[in-house]
Amino acid sequence: MFEDPGVGVFQVWDYVVFAALFVISSGIGIFFAVKERKKVSSREFLVGGKQMTCGPVALSLTASFMSAVTVLGTPSDVYRFGASFIIFGIAYTIMVIMTAELFVPVFYRSGITSTYEYLELRFSRTVRMAATLIYVVQTILYTGVVVYAPALALNQVTGFNLWGSIAATGVVCTFYCTLGGLKAVVWTDAFQMVVMLMGFLTVLIQGTIKSGGTAVVWQKAQEGSRLEIFDFDLDPLRRHTFWTITVGGTFTWLGIYGVNQSTIQRCISCKSEKQAKLALYFNLLGLLVILVCAVFSGLIMYSFYMDCDPWTAGFVSAPDQLMPYFVMDILGHLPGLPGLFVACAFSGTLSTVAASINALATVTYEDFVKYCFNNLTDRCSTWISKGLCVVFGVACTTMAVAAAYMGGVVQAALSIHGMCGGPMLGLFSLGILLPCTNWMGAVGGLAVGITLSFWAGIGAFVHPALPGKTMPLPLNTSGCVPLNTSDILTTLAPSLAPERYPSTKPALADSWYSMSYLYYSAVGWLATMTAGLLISLVTGPQRGKDVKPLLIRPVCNLFCFWSEKCKTLCWCGVPHDEETVDFSKNFVSSDALAMKQGQPRDQVNGLSKDPREISSSSSPEDKAYINAGFTKDTYF
Predict the structure, then answer these.
(1) Which of 194, 207, 257, 567 has the smallest C-beta neighbourhood within 10 Å, fewest atoms?
(2) For the segment 295-313, what is each residue's pLDDT rounded down to a tens digit?
(3) Name one GO cellular component term (predicted).
């Protein structure tokens, strides 16, 4: 045992700074509730009237997916395993390019509000309902853990009240989601993104000064093997190598990002497809900035604790508590700055929870409520959408409370996002990339993908991989002050201490169950694609004339550019000539086109429809009046 030198605790000014985050977030919700009070349609509430621009949407996307798990977990990962986490920048880049060029154009042009509405247009209502239910359960469970995990870490280090922080997070997110809808969520996320950057910069600057400067940090990181980034070992059982991060990480983030309702909902809220793509590319810059800040925070933290690791010494009980402990150690004497970092961590939590609540309300309204009640008024539909925000806010907060009693299951819940993401990515890939896939292949492929990815994930949780595959780097306590000399001989670093494993392990424990967690999504995607295609071929491929060409992305045009015959073969009978399919060139928004034609917006191209008159099972062309993807520009 070692003597804990002690760190600072929250002071009055820290609580003031932290409370300001919640007050400003709530104020943004009130602002948009007052500003948009005369716009009562559910479309305005759920997708911002499709009038958002790329700037706030880009910040919102970054904040939504850089949760407190990233703020607290990534520096800890770098501290224990090294800076190879920086390779995720490659995965982020590939993921954003594929999302912007493959998935968003299809979703934007099809005029959908719920991502899973695409599945009904492409396959059947059965496929849509199955995917929606998986998403709802997955998101509630994941969001609960996102709220609970950082609240617990901060509680045990800073003394910040656990249940108070959980309740405050749930209440504030539900409040501004319910009042202001998607616009409030997007602008609040943008504000919270700025807070996250300020918190990181504070830690980076003060931590570097306390550690002796940038040169000292870099030297100590090299001495501790934390800068050995590129490991090209092809072994899929290794936790983090160049290949597991670039390949597995790309699939993992595509499952979380590319076909996720929360992402797509923000993209289709943009006023044009070009704005949606720009939002994704600007968001990539935000992802890379946050990644670099988190990795350097981990390196600085290692440099500071190189000779006295708080986790090994027993000053903290879990690795996720290292970052808040470090913050209180270097900033505890400066009133307000610890509060700024806690606001940084909770900004990630607030943005993630708000995005989840809004996305859950959207898919539930679009996929269930509108199907059961076709003739709702605008006012009624808006109130139902707000009620759903309250319901899911309570559900997510309750899940966070329940997580306190789940013990080790919390670790399993954190990986559910990845295990569900791969099969869902495979399902949408079947619809967009393979025109021959029918609804039976889609359902069967999803079932096989979910089964295999959960089999691997749950097996890994029950039978964890050997330390030789996870490769934790050594930690040191030689600089800690012992309580007595006998304790020095009996203390082992947690990363090096022998772990207990069951005496009898299944045959797959050292192979299938030891696979890197980053490959869960890749396994789910590959299984879904393979099974879906085979089942479709066995039961009879989908006829090309029954598939709307705008639901298919002409990627085969890139790979088969030399042969028109190959294009025709890849499209399986779906019309694929440029005049029929390619609406990406020279289009303008419906508003601009209406102004040129001197017509009201809702009468563009001769269409005069109320959004409520279009059922969720309508074809994409029926929704063209609100979507630039179906509006050809005849003026340029």
Answers:
(1) 194
(2) 999 999 999 999 888 888 8
(3) plasma membrane
